[in-house]
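Q: Could you fold this chain for me?
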Amino acid sequence: MALAVIGLGWSQPGVAQSGPTGFPRKVTLYLTASGEQLPAPEGADHRAEVTLRDSVSGTMREYYPSGKLWRIVPMAHVGLGLRHGVAMSYDEGGKLRKREEYVGGHRQGEVQIFDATGTLSRTKVYSQDKLVSQQCFTPTGQPRECQA
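A: Sure. Below is the predicted structure, expressed as structure tokens.
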């Protein structure tokens, strides 16, 4: 998803603003299914809301077409798309599907993947975006061999 529009100005088409001129400031982006930004909500597949903590950092919340929360991504630099912190992804029913840690835009540490019941099914450990190890689990939580 291209978020560079955030750093370019507050009166651009496709960016809805809310709140006073201070921080936090919320910006809404309207997106196609492929992630392209639209100038207005008409024809959008889904939306993303970015809440800026200061002039560059903030949190992006992306929503399914139904309006339910899809994912929350903390950003060190919104305009550059630089992720920093713990990102969480949910299914449309609201169950946690993925938890992943980022440092300076790189996956760092543990990624946890959950199945449709909310049970931990896989963990992956990353260092500077490189997969170091992984472990898979049965629905009862027992370790098993990971499939590709």
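A (continued): Confidence is low (pLDDT under 50) at residues 1-19.
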